């Protein structure tokens, strides 16, 4: 399992923010920039996968005809 795969969403976001800040400074040699960019892309993909997983777990409460809670249903369109 890769280092990134073990990260929580929050850890990956922090690492991604650090990569972006480093690249935005513009003082990184080209080869290092490419390496940081690739790491940033992997971090972004990891964060997107974590978000998608969380969205799939989100459910809305469904109500019956009387307005009483009757269960849950997946949230559509997230």
Oligomer: single chain
Most strands sheet: 2 strands, antiparallel
Quantity of strands, as a count = 2
Mean pLDDT: 86
Structure notes:
With 78 residues, the protein is α+β, with helices and mostly antiparallel strands. The chain has one domain: Helix Hairpins (Orthogonal Bundle). Helices cover 58% and strands 14% of the residues. Strands 1-2 form a two-stranded antiparallel ribbon. Strand 1 and strand 2 form a beta hairpin. Helix 1 runs antiparallel to helix 2. The chain is elongated and about 65 Å long. The relative contact order is 0.14.
Task: Give a summary of the structure in a few sentences.
The chain has helices spanning 9-25, 30-57, and strands at residues 59-63, 69-74.
Primary descriptors:
78 residues, alpha+beta, Helix Hairpins, two-stranded antiparallel sheet, 2 helices, 2 strands
Blueprint (SSEs and pairs):
Elements: H1 9-25, H2 30-57, E1 59-63, E2 69-74
Antiparallel strand pairs: 1-2
């Amino acid at each position: 399992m890769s280092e990134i795969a073990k990260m929580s969403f929050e850890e990956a976001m922090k690492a991604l923010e650090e990569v972006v800040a480093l690249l935005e400074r513009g003082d990184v040699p080209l080869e290092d920039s490419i390496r940081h960019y690739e790491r940033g892309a992997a971090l972004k993909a990891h964060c997107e996968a974590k978000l998608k997983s969380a969205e799939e777990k989100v459910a809305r409460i469904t109500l019956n005809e009387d307005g009483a809670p009757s269960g849950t249903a997946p949230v559509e369109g997230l």
